[in-house]
Write a structure and sequence with these properties.
four-stranded mixed beta sheet; four-stranded antiparallel beta sheet; Butyryl-CoA Dehydrogenase, subunit A, domain 3; 390 residues; Butyryl-CoA Dehydrogenase, subunit A, domain 2; alpha+beta; 3 domains
Length: 390
């Protein structure tokens, strides 16, 4: 049946404007920290409406939407300050369980992801094994019906508020290093797990170190075959290649930054500085409008079954830099007034909640845009290889 996309957009818009609680939209609109406290009730609202998993097949509780509908959904939610859905369960491990999990694993784990009851994090990166993930050293040895896991994961986003971690571990050193990796699902309340925060310059608590000391994990929590975890891990990372096609959050941020510049630098005294920042925003908008066109092309390619080629890497590379440029303009607008009052690295300080301080935090946070989700250096390598060959 042919989809009326304009009618669908109106339906999603009406839902976003009437069903997303004002207190949740306010957190998004003011660029405050998104956490489980915000994400979970929103996921419950979406799930009750039948929209809990836009990218899942209907037989597993998803919407069965096509790529264009999913793109419209994400775009409209961003335009209306509704939070993006928490990705680790819905867009990462959920599709892996659907594709490679046993019926028992699907019945055990998918309902909790859909309802928001179970919260997940990703145990991939390790000290010395970030971009070169195949060099991971966290080891798992099998003893009967259990694996005994020892090692350390780092930069583990949201581990401190998660129930489960999907993680890659080394079960063999004898084969090629990619072939000795296994994927396990580990409850984070298991004896032997220690989670320690990594404090970042924005003053928020995002990431953690996770230490595993003789952690027992049932073999039933293994995804697929032993030694095939590299395949499942790559599937996970490649599953959502259209994420960069949604430029709506960046455009929303740009418009708010434009308003900030006008308010913060009002009057004749600041005319020259205001004009300079407005020019930088105009250039950023041109970049984002170009990315918007590329995003539409990426969605069309998926709809038509055409290969995406360079598009995901080009979108990630360009939009991550533009996000930083816009944040730099905001920082230049408020920095003289607010930067000296920014909270200390431990989150304390008498002016930690100064009005407008979120613009400083946002600037600090945006430094990571060119690192996570495939660093700019990695994206440039991908683009170069596709253009000129390996």
């Amino acid at each position: 049946m042919e989809v009326d996309y304009e009618a669908f957009r109106r339906e999603v818009t009406e839902f976003a404007q009437t069903r997303c609680p004002p207190e949740i939209r306010a957190v998004v609109a003011t660029y405050r920290k998104l956490s489980r406290k915000i994400w979970q009730p929103w996921q419950q609202i979406l799930h009750a409406h039948g929209w809990g998993a836009p990218s899942w097949p209907k037989q597993f509780g998803g919407t069965g939407w096509d790529p264009q509908q999913r793109h419209i959904f994400d775009e409209v939610m961003a335009e209306n300050d509704c939070p993006p859905q928490y990705h680790h369960g819905l867009r990462h491990i959920g599709p892996v369980i659907i594709e490679f999990g046993t019926p028992e694993q699907q019945a055990r784990f998918l309902p909790g992801i859909l309802s928001g009851e179970d919260w997940w994090c990703q145990g991939y990166s390790e000290p010395g094994a970030g971009s070169d993930l195949a060099s991971l050293r966290t080891a798992a040895r099998r003893e009967g019906d259990e694996y005994i896991v020892d090692g350390q994961k780092t930069w583990t986003s949201h581990a401190h508020e998660s129930d489960w971690m999907y993680t890659l571990v080394r079960t063999s050193k004898e084969a090629k290093k990619q072939q000795g990796i296994t994927m396990l699902l580990i409850p984070l309340n298991s004896p032997g797990i220690t989670i320690r925060p990594i404090r970042t310059i924005d003053g928020w608590h995002h990431v953690n170190e996770v230490f595993l000391d003789n952690v027992r994990v049932p073999v039933a929590n293994r995804i697929g075959e032993e030694g095939k975890g590299w395949t499942y891990g790559k599937f996970l990372l490649e599953r959502e290649r259209l994420g960069g096609a949604n430029v709506a959050p960046a455009l929303k941020n740009l418009e708010r930054t434009r308003e900030l510049v006008a308010q913060e630098l009002a009057g004749e005294t600041h005319r020259a500085k205001r004009a300079a920042l407005e020019l930088r925003l105009l250039l950023a908008e041109a970049e984002l409008r170009g990315a918007l066109a590329l995003g539409k092309e990426a969605v069309a390619a998926v709809m038509e079954g055409r290969p995406l080629g360079l598009l995901p890497s080009v979108l990630k590379l360009s939009t991550s830099v533009t996000h930083q440029h816009v944040a730099e303009v905001a920082m230049d607008a408020v920095g003289e007034r607010l930067a000296p009052r920014f909270r200390r690295i431990d989150g304390s300080g008498p002016n930690a909640e100064a009005p407008g301080i979120e613009w400083v935090q946002n600037y600090m946070y945006m430094r990571v845009r060119t690192i996570y989700g495939g660093s700019s250096e990695v994206q440039k390598n991908v683009i170069a290889k596709q253009l000129f060959g390996s």
